[in-house]
Design a protein that fits this description.
The chain is built from ten helices and seven strands. By secondary structure, it is of the alpha/beta class. The chain has a single domain, classed as Rossmann fold, CATH 3.40.50.150. It has a seven-stranded mixed sheet with strand order 3-2-1-4-5-7-6, with helices on both faces. α2 runs antiparallel to α5 and α2 crosses α6. The radius of gyration is 16 Å and the shape is globular. The chain starts with a helix and ends in a 5-residue tail after the last helix.
């Protein structure tokens, strides 16, 4: 853990919080992940999540929404690493939300908030203030993620998507969707968060204009009829 903290220039308090998060995940009786063992989770969950800190606008963001957080990744490690930011972890499955809340409490991540909502509903029904950054790891295609994120982002905000090997067709569809939504693809950053990692990339989009008022569409439509095709 010390080496990971040094790599990302994190203070001792953050390293302690990440250690506590690993311990809590290992002790969790109902983990919504197949990787809960601390040795494996250190790489698969923590190091992979913290790779997002290589994107400077995400590192500087003061409000972050993590979409489809699952067991709390990348949202919880980012909240621990960025204590001055508010990190909202959006997860539609209540069981997973309860796990995120337990892990957050154990890790002392007081700036993290687990929210039982779909991204479309959170953006459309609650009138939330826009975020400086939106993150998503292993959630959906780029086109779908752009539609989820665009209504949540403030002007100049960034969407950071964790992906594996590059897919030209997916990237083309994502760029097409971005144009409809007021986003622009700005970077595909290869990352190697741990020595055995292969074919990992961060896809970064910036909010450059207003998102049309017809978005977000009702829940499920982005995945059923994605833009950019």
């Amino acid at each position: 853990m010390a080496a990971l903290a040094r790599r990302h220039q994190l203070p001792d308090e953050a390293a302690d919080g990440l250690d506590a998060l690993l311990d809590a995940l290992a002790a969790e009786p109902d983990p919504p992940t197949t990787v809960a063992d601390p040795d494996r989770a250190l790489d698969t969950h923590l190091a992979d999540s913290l790779a997002g800190l290589e994107v400077e606008p995400l590192r500087q963001a003061r409000t972050v929404a993590d979409l489809g957080s699952g067991a709390g990744f990348p949202g919880l490690p980012l909240a621990i690493a960025l204590p001055r930011a508010r990190v909202d972890l959006l997860e539609s499955t209540l069981r997973k939300v309860e796990v995120i809340r337990r892990l957050s409490l154990a890790a002392g991540a007081g700036n993290a908030r687990a929210i039982a909502a779909r991204a479309e509903d959170w953006a459309g029904a609650y009138g939330v203030d826009p975020y400086g950054a939106v993150t998503a790891r292993a959630v959906a295609s780029l086109a779908v993620l752009c539609e989820y994120a665009a209504p949540l982002l403030q002007p100049g905000g960034v969407l950071v998507c964790w992906k594996g090997a590059r897919d030209g067709a997916e990237e083309k569809a994502g760029a097409g969707a971005a144009r409809e939504l007021g986003l622009e693809p700005v970077e595909v950053r290869p990352v190697r968060p741990f020595p055995s990692a292969r074919d990992r990339h961060l896809h970064v989009f910036t909010k450059i204009g207003p998102t049309p008022a017809r978005f977000p569409r009702r829940a499920g439509m982005a995945a059923k009829r994605p833009l950019g095709g």
